[in-house]
Design goal:
Blueprint lengths: L1 E6 L2 E6 L6 E3 H5 L10 E5 L4 H12 L6 E3 L4 E3 L13 H5 L3 H7 L2 H11 L5 E2 L4 E5 L9 E2 L14 E6 L10 E4 L6 H5 L7 E3 L2 H8 L3 E2 L8 E5 L4 E3 L8 E9 L20
Length: 271
Amino acid sequence: MNYNLTASQKTFEAIDPPSEYYIELDDLLNGKYTNKFEGFLVIKNVFSHEIIDSLRKEYFSLFNGDYEYDGNEWTHVKKSKLSHGVGLHPSTAFVRSKSFRNFIESSILKQLSSALLHSDESALCPRAILRSFSHFSSRCTLAHRDVDYFSSLDDTKVVTTWIPLGPADDHHGQLIYLKDSHKNISTISKLVKDDKTITSDLKSLADRLGTTWYMPTLSKGDIMVHCLNTVHASFDTNNIIPRLSCDLRFAPSIEYLDPRWSTHWRGDDGL
């Protein structure tokens, strides 16, 4: 399927990735993924709907009238006066809450990351990032690579885990990936700006490199994982139903983690 999307109000196209980019959780845990992990992968049916809905409810209930629940879904009805992740913004407390820490430290995430990294027991980076976008958001995530924000002894030994906590589709600014970008490291490195981003013009980037953007199809409870050198971005969320997601970093052992990421995330922590 072809998707016509906008990022930073600029149009571009994306397509579904081939079937080899999808795997069921049980197949991963049962050793059916034997490749060295690179690029990205969609892991199906990792979390129950109940777990996702519970976290979503807990988060949006922290706001004083900014979000409303209609019996089916949360909607963003009033723009918050607080900057996301800064000061008294609810996201700052939420990423430190017992329920959120229990979620990201769950055994299932350790098992699947260990399977990807071919490790006995993976290590989780304490800094877990929470993001939320809606029709009130004036920004999306620009094209970038995690390797430019995260320092490791071996870039291939760290994986990013992206978990949508609710809707993730062509209306909710989900994560998208630049096809085969992890194989084009030297060329892409020359495009990285001083602020560590690449560009807001996703069409121009794809055209310049002679490639395309992949937009995976996700269901509630699915997650995505990618290596640090994979270029990714999100597109505009023009919907009253907000996108909520978190992203984590796993490595085969603690020595491969960036020590700067050893404390809880804040929106103004400079990383």
